[in-house]
Amino acid sequence: MQSLEYASAATGERIGFEGPLYGETLAGLRGRVWDYSIGARGLTGVTRKTRETNVTVRIHDSPATLDLLRRLADADMSAGTPGTLVADGEWETRAWIPKSEPQTITPTMVETQLTIVLADGVWRRGTTEHHDPRTDKAGGDLDYPHDYPHDYAGMSILGTVTNATGMPQPVKLTIFGPCVNPYIIIGTNRYEVDATIPAGSRLEIDAASDSRTVTMISDTGLRTNLFGKAVRGAGRGAGTYVFEPLPPGTSSISWAGGFEFDLTAIEERSEPPWT
C-alpha cells in the first residue's frame, strides 16, 4: 500500500495520509481477520465481519488538517453512513472514524490515535468491461409480435471473463436502455430482470453490496427500485439467480445483443496490497 485516502460519504471531500497528515506504517489496517467457529471436524460460520482497529497519525505545523479530519469523520458518524478508505487509488473499503485520542501535543507536532471501524471486513477493487450492441445479426433476428426499439438477434458468445482469485467474485451489471426484459448469460447463469428500460435510462444490478440492489436510474436521476422484477429463481447455484457470483476460472459471456452493458467484476481481499 503506497497511498491512502479517506473519502467522506456525507461531504464528498477527501483527506490523505501522506502529508501534512502522516499515517506512517498504518499497521492496524494491514492485518486480516476471518471470523469462525471451531466444530468437531472443521470450521463453521466462516465470514469476514465488521472490525475495529487503531492507527497512529501525526501532523506537523498544520493543525487545520486535524480540523478537516474531524469534520469529515463527524459528518459520516452523524449521518450513520460510512466513508471510504481508498488504498493506492483503487482498493476500497467502507469505514468510520469514531474516535481520536491525542497521544503527544507540542507546539510543532500532534500525534493522535485514530479508532477506525472497517464496515465490510474486505477491500474491493472493480474491473469493468464495456460491451456495445451487436451489429452482426448473427443467428438472424428473432420474430417478435411487437415492435421494439431495437432488434433481437440469436444468442452469441461475445467473449469471456476470468476470475483468477480462486474465490467467487461479486459482480455488478449496468444495462443501458432501451431494452425489454434484458438478460445476460455468464457461464451457466442467466442474469435477468423482467422490466422495460427506456432510452436514456440504465439498470444497475449490484451484487457487491451487502443489501444487493436492482435499480433503474432515469436520464434525470430518478431512481426506481426494481428488486421485485429481478429473476432470482431458486437462489445461488440454480442457474437463474440475478446475484450469482462469478466462479473461479474463465466464463463465457453471451446475450441477444440488442443493448449495451458494463460488466464489473469485484475482486475482494482481506487486507490492502503490500506491493
Describe the fold and architecture.
Mean pLDDT is 89; it is low at 138-153. The protein has two helices and 21 strands. With 275 residues, it is mainly beta. The N and C termini lie close together (6 Å). It is globular. It folds into two domains: 4-121, Elongation Factor Tu (Ef-tu), domain 3, CATH 2.40.30; 125-269, Jelly Rolls (Sandwich). The chain has a seven-stranded antiparallel beta sheet. A six-stranded antiparallel beta sheet has the order 10-21-12-17-18-19, with no helix packed on it.
Radius of gyration: 23 Å
Sheet with the most strands: spatial strand order? 2-1-7-8-9-6-3
Structural category: mainly beta
Oligomer: single chain
Q: Average pLDDT across residues?
A: 89
Low-confidence segments, given as residue ranges, are: 138-153
What is the H-and-E element order?
EEEHEEEHEEEEEEEEEEEEEEE
Largest beta-sheet characterization: 7 strands, antiparallel
| Tally of contiguous helical segments | 2
Protein name: Tail protein
Organism: Bifidobacterium merycicum
SSE blueprint and pairings:
Layout: E1 4-7, E2 14-16, E3 21-22, H1 27-30, E4 35-38, E5 43-47, E6 51-60, H2 63-79, E7 83-87, E8 91-105, E9 109-118, E10 123-131, E11 156-163, E12 171-176, E13 179-180, E14 183-186, E15 189-192, E16 196-197, E17 202-206, E18 213-217, E19 223-225, E20 249-255, E21 260-269
Antiparallel strand pairs: 1-2, 1-7, 3-6, 4-5, 6-9, 7-8, 8-9, 10-21, 11-20, 12-17, 12-21, 13-16, 14-15, 14-20, 17-18, 18-19
